């Protein structure tokens, strides 16, 4: 699409909707000023609508997970409630015509705000008793990606990751650089991320050190959250957020913020958010592996199961993944004892915690 076409379209749309033809967003300003290097990659609503003209509207899908590990019974009910709340939040965005990227951010923010999960408020503590957070968000239409790693005192790292995607020329910022960027754009500092429960669990688990793989088969495991979505324009997106592994070394970064491992989204195939033993997921680039299998013709479920099986056989890693294809096929698969997940498609909510579990509820 030529820049001149974009300008004419935006001017026409502005007039037809009763708006002035002046710029209404930074992306629109760039297009009208002729400074947007590639209008086909612009993520503004106007450009998304333009690129979707002539395509059939899709039935929206949202899938979320609260982490794959040996979730104890004491957290089971809260975990299920949390993922359902997150799915409802993301679905509300999609029902109101919002984008997939908006939906996954909203869903993951809900999980980050819930102390039942290892992300944002209530995240696990590193070996020094501090919270360090990682997150990624990816737009399947443009492949635009933002990520942050080892950030502290940020309640919603997924939103900081999105800011990296939209407000910088980079894909990832870490630690001090991410904190400086957050301060510059006005994201507030949060000093209340450490919960009393996590402090007590950290003190107890510090007395019984085990290998990181074993965390995912014990009550001391605590893992990632994530979401994938398909919007009405046919665009997919993913978001993943985590506090990592309890007692991790300071500065340890797992799979979650790494493109192709913790998450990946591409309109040509689908979107994935992964969870589990980060080092294992990194070694097999799990998210991209799942999409590779889908590109070879496998269903979302078959692709996820084949990839998780390969990870188990090749590096003895366990974990889980949620998937949505560009046609609306979706899956929630895991090889750990439990994973809390929920999905909404066509006003039907699916959710589960244990292997092969799938409860359904019609929303209206």
From TrEMBL:
Active-site annotation: 224
Site, Cleavage: residue positions: 223-224
Enzyme class: hydrolase
Catalytic activities: L-asparagine + H2O = L-aspartate + NH4(+); Cleavage of a beta-linked Asp residue from the N-terminus of a polypeptide
GO terms of biological process kind: L-asparagine catabolic process via L-aspartate; proteolysis
UniProt entry keywords in alphabetical sequence: Autocatalytic cleavage, Hydrolase, Protease
Pfam families found in the cross-reference section: Asparaginase_2
InterPro entries documented for this protein: ASRGL1_meta (IPR033844), Ntn_hydrolases_N (IPR029055), Peptidase_T2 (IPR000246)
CDD domains: ASRGL1_like
Superkingdom of origin: Eukaryota
Name of the protein in question: Isoaspartyl peptidase/L-asparaginase
């Amino acid at each position: 699409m030529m820049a001149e076409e974009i300008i004419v379209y935006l001017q026409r749309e502005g007039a037809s909707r009763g708006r002035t033809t002046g710029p209404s967003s930074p992306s629109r300003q760039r297009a009208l000023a002729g400074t947007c290097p590639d209008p086909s990659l612009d993520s503004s609503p106007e450009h998304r609508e333009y690129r979707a003209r002539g395509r059939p509207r899709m039935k929206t899908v949202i899938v979320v997970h609260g982490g794959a590990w040996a979730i104890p019974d004491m957290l089971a009910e809260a975990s299920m409630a949390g993922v359902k709340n997150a799915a409802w939040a993301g679905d509300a965005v999609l029902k109101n015509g919002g984008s997939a990227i908006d939906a996954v951010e909203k869903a993951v923010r809900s999980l980050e705000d819930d102390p039942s999960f290892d992300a944002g408020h209530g995240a696990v503590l590193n070996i020094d008793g501090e919270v360090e957070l990682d997150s990624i968000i990816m737009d399947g239409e443009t492949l635009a990606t933002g990520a942050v790693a080892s950030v502290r005192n940020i309640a919603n790292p997924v939103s900081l990751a999105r800011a990296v995607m939209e407000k910088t020329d980079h894909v990832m910022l870490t630690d001090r650089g991410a904190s400086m960027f957050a301060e510059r754009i006005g994201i507030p500092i949060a000093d209340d991320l450490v919960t009393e429960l996590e402090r007590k669990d950290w003190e107890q688990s510090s007395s019984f050190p085990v290998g990181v793989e074993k965390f995912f088969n014990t009550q001391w495991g605590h893992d990632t959250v994530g979401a994938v979505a398909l919007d009405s324009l046919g665009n997919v997106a993913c978001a993943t957020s985590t506090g990592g592994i309890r007692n991790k070394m300071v500065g340890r970064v797992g799979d979650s913020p790494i493109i192709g491992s913790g998450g990946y989204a591409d309109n040509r195939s689908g979107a994935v958010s992964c969870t589990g033993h980060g080092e294992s997921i990194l070694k097999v680039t799990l998210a991209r592996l799942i999409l590779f299998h889908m590109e070879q013709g496998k269903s979302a479920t078959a692709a996820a199961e084949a990839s998780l099986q390969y990870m188990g056989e090749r590096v003895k890693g366990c974990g889980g993944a949620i998937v949505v294809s560009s046609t609306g096929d979706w899956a929630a698969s895991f090889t750990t004892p439990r994973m809390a997940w929920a999905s909404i498609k066509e006003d039907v909510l699916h959710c589960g915690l244990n292997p092969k579990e799938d409860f359904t509820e019609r929303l209206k």
